[in-house]
């Protein structure tokens, strides 16, 4: 056997192994952080009504809203926040889509409750008779199943047109009430029950239309379970909140809506 060729072959083999190890052990350039251009659309449940810490020059947008909290926790590249208290679907289409573009990567929205008139229904049920409450809730259910789907479809389509590359995340509304005994001045258990049933109808309709639009629907109800009005630790404000009545408080946005959004964003 000739030793010199064997030595050359052995040296070449060692060099190959060393090169391979160097490729594994020497770190390459750090991976660039993902770009997140986030736009938060919608009504008061998106703007953060009930949480406090409002920018009074805006539509009661709060730094404690789920949108603001998520943006702060995820080091977003950009964050636009046109959500506005009192908004209906037409307001989203006509007034909130300006920040959207082909570079938008994520859009969140709550919408539809004001279209169905839930604010006035809640007021009617709080201060009106059982029969009036039942009638108004039934009207809202009918609207939610007949008129609202088309409005939601148009809203989601408009968002898609302006932000074709974005992930659209539609968040639903929580059930607002616990139905056990809640004191002599509280809304009756039967009223609270039918209002919760209306919330269930709204969730079902919204989930179906979000799915049809290829959006991700997040059901807020499980995340607020046990923390409605009349709970020992409520995350929803009662009528005593005046303009904030029947909206999440700061805990509701932090411990209800934010985990709901986190559940689909990782």
TrEMBL record:
Keywords: Signal. Residues 40-254 form the SGNH hydrolase-type esterase domain. It comes from the Bacteria. Residues 1-32 form the signal peptide. InterPro entries: SEST-like, SGNH_hydro, SGNH_hydro_sf. PANTHER family: LIPASE 2, SGNH HYDROLASE-TYPE ESTERASE DOMAIN-CONTAINING PROTEIN. This is Lipase. It comes from Micromonospora echinofusca. The lineage of its organism: Bacteria, Bacillati, Actinomycetota, Actinomycetes, Micromonosporales.
């Amino acid at each position: 056997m000739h030793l010199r060729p064997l030595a050359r072959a052995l040296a070449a083999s060692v060099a190959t192994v060393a090169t391979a190890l160097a490729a594994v052990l020497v770190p390459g350039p750090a991976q660039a952080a993902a770009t997140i251009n986030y736009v938060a659309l919608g009504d008061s449940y998106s703007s953060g009504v009930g949480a406090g810490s409002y920018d009074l020059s805006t539509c009661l947008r709060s730094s404690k809203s789920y949108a603001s909290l998520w943006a702060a926790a995820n080091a977003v590249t950009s964050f636009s926040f046109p959500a506005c208290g009192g908004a209906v679907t037409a307001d989203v289409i006509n007034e909130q889509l300006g920040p959207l573009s082909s570079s938008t990567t994520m859009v969140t929205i709550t919408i539809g409750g004001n279209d169905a008139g839930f604010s006035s229904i809640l007021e009617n049920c709080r201060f009106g008779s059982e029969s009036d409450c039942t009638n108004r809730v039934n009207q809202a259910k009918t609207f939610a199943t007949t008129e609202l789907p088309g409005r939601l479809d148009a809203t989601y389509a408009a968002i898609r047109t302006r932000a074709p590359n974005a992930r659209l995340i539609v968040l639903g509304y929580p059930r607002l009430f616990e139905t056990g005994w809640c004191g002599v001045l509280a809304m009756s258990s039967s009223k609270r029950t039918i209002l919760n049933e209306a919330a269930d109808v709204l969730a079902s309709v919204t989930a179906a239309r979000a799915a049809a639009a290829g959006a991700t629907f997040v059901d807020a109800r499980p995340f607020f379970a046990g923390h409605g009005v009349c709970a020992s630790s409520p995350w929803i404000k009662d009528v005593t909140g005046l303009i904030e009545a029947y909206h999440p408080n700061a805990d509701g946005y932090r411990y209800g809506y934010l985990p709901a959004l986190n559940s689909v964003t990782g």
